[in-house]
Specification:
Length: about 210
């Protein structure tokens, strides 16, 4: 649907918030482009079901307008959520070191933990693992709708799992870096161009950039 300017949804990772470095870089770029009002960046609750219920209330009115009315950026666990949403809405999604199968990774975090940016404690309940399982996408459809930014130096998740899961999608594999992609300012324009440019031609395929 040519001519529709997409709203952009940013989903942070586990224990993170809209105050994360990558979220702030995206916000700064959107502000510089005069598009701050097009960015939706909620604080996600610990419950995956509650998180997706919140997001659906925020974006369904945009997603209902067509494929190109909404785009999503998801980091880590936010990338897992973004994949479920992209499959639901048929919209494009950019994934930054996404969690492919967070069930086992987060099992060890069941209990009381803290939010990175405030130190505030919160409980990650055992039942949330089942909620994650309900959101798992076994195989993506329409891989041209996805852009993967993965770092070989990710100390939390294995980038090879990401590359395999998002096979056929546009991929930029960074040699080195880390889970946070600390130099994200170097890549944000590439991510935003994928999300906010109407023409997806040439988006499919792999660009390892090694």
């Amino acid at each position: 649907m040519s001519g529709i300017t997409p709203h952009l949804l940013y989903l942070h990772g586990f224990r993170s918030s809209p105050r994360s470095f990558k979220a702030r870089v995206v916000q700064q770029r959107m502000e510089a482009a005069g598009r701050a009002g097009d960015l939706i960046c909620p604080q996600l609750p610990p419950s995956p079901k509650a998180a997706m219920d919140l997001v659906l209330t925020l974006v369904e009115r945009y997603a209902a307008r067509g494929d190109n009315a909404l785009a999503i950026i998801g980091s880590s666990l936010g990338g897992f959520y973004a994949t479920w949403l992209a499959e639901r809405f048929g919209c494009r999604a950019a994934l930054i070191n996404p969690a492919v199968d967070p069930l086992k990774d987060l099992d060890k975090h069941v209990g009381i933990t803290t939010e990175w940016h405030t130190g505030e404690p919160f409980e990650f309940k055992r039942e949330y693992i089942d909620e994650l399982a309900a959101l798992k996408v076994g195989t993506i459809t329409r891989p041209e709708r996805y852009f993967l930014l993965a770092a070989t130096g990710d100390e939390v998740l294995d980038y090879r799992d990401m590359v395999a899961h998002y096979g056929g999608a546009h991929q930029h594999v960074i040699e080195g870096s880390d889970h946070a992609v600390s130099e994200f300012e170097q890549y944000v324009d590439e991510v935003l161009a994928f999300c906010l440019t109407d023409n997806l031609q040439g988006g499919a395929g792999s660009d390892p950039a090694r």
